[in-house]
Amino acid sequence: MKNDLGLELREQEKIIRVVNHHLIVIVPHVVISFLILILNFFLMYYLFIQGWWGAVLFFAIVLSVLFYMVRLVFLYKKNKFVITNQRIIDFEQVGFFEKFINEFTYAKVDKASAVVKGIGGALFKYGNLKLNLIEDLGPFELYKVPRPIELQELINSQLATSEEKKGIEPSAEPVSLVMAEINMLGRSEKIQIYKKLKAELLAEKQKNEF
After folding, report:
1. Mean pLDDT, the chain, as a whole number?
2. What value does the mean pLDDT take over residues 124-149?
């Protein structure tokens, strides 16, 4: 059953935190929109004495700014990521009718790291949050989120708890990486690897017997 976020939770899954981007991402847009409206009303008398086209231009600017603000607030509320006790889900809304969802179970995440840059980030407590994935070369990055260091600690604590419950050993991670590489090879190459491993294991066994 889906909840208010439109997210279907798994068995025994609980939402820990829902995180929107920091307000800093929309503040410049709001300020510019407000200045455009102020300028438009300042020129209202001049536009109206120009005739019908001046009135049309005035109301067109007002409607355009209002539409832009509605779209801005809509995207701000829809772009978020959710931290549960089993996974991390990123909702990326790029338009009224277009969105992308990225989902990462804790088994796929190596660690989370926070990046806070500049005076603005330190003063207003926002920054980027990177998820270092086990099988991907580059991290998945969440931009301009509030209190990234706190979120980093929260996710890393969930990673530790998840590994303890599943009994995942750190030594198992290289095996998964090697198997992922082997699966990309052809049949003949897999046979060669099998023969070499078999020979090495047999030699190691004989060595241990003496």
Report:
1. 82
2. 86
